[in-house]
Every structure is written in structure tokens, then in C-alpha cells.
Design brief:
Blueprint (H helix, E strand, L loop, with lengths): L3 E4 L5 H11 L2 H10 L4 E7 L2 E12 L2 E9 L8 H11 L7 E4 L8 H6 L3 E2 L4 E4 L5
Parallel strand pairs: 4-5
Antiparallel strand pairs: 1-2, 2-3, 3-4, 5-7, 6-7
Helix pairs in contact: 1-2
Amino acid sequence: MPVYSEYIVEPSAQDRQDLAKLYGDEGDKLIAAAQKHQLHLIGGRFNGALIAALTLTRIHNGDYQMARLTVRDITRRRGVARQLVIQCLKDLPDDLSSICADIRSAPELASLLTEMRFVDNGANWQWQRPPRD
């Protein structure tokens, strides 16, 4: 099940429906925030449908927070979240230097973040972008 990530700014009608399946009423708010450049809404697409998504919000000076990692129920336990995070890490905003994630409400993500080289700092998990050549 290959999942491809993309930044969602101008979603199609189908994308809006898919985001509503993922986030309920919050989907429209996230789209509006992405359109105002308040956050990055990153979708995971499989067979033309958005089946997963997450947000990256700029905190300051290249530090971002990853939040709202969500996978549709029907596609859970198939590596979708893993593939979305991998794809996301390949196409980051240029100014990004680190990502933090608070997974206290989703401790099952600990092994995924460990695999992606995030470090557990207690309340948050932290990832540092490798130096660029």
C-alpha cells in the first residue's frame, strides 16, 4: 500500500470529504489555516484518496511541531502512518531545522518516532534535520 504525501492548500471536493473523514468538523478549520499559511497540512494519498494526514506548525526559528497524525480506521495497522512520516521527512519546508511531537495521547506512535530517529525528551519527541551538504 504505497502512500504519497502532499501539501494540501487548495483541496478538491473529494479531498475535503476525505479530510472530513479524518478530522470531522476540524477538517475545514485545518484547510483554512493552511490557506492562511498558519500551518502545513500534509495528506497521505493512496489510490487517489487521502487516507492519512498530519500538520506541521512553525513555532519559531525553524522549529516546527508535528500534530494531528491521523489515519482512516479502515487503513490502520498497514504502515500508513509510517509511510506518511517518511514521505513528509523527504519534503520539508526549507527553513525547518527540527520537529517536536507530543504523543502523550497516542503512545502507540513511540516505536514509529523512534524508527524515524526522533528522541524522547520526556513530554516531547524531538527530531533534528541532518546537516545539508
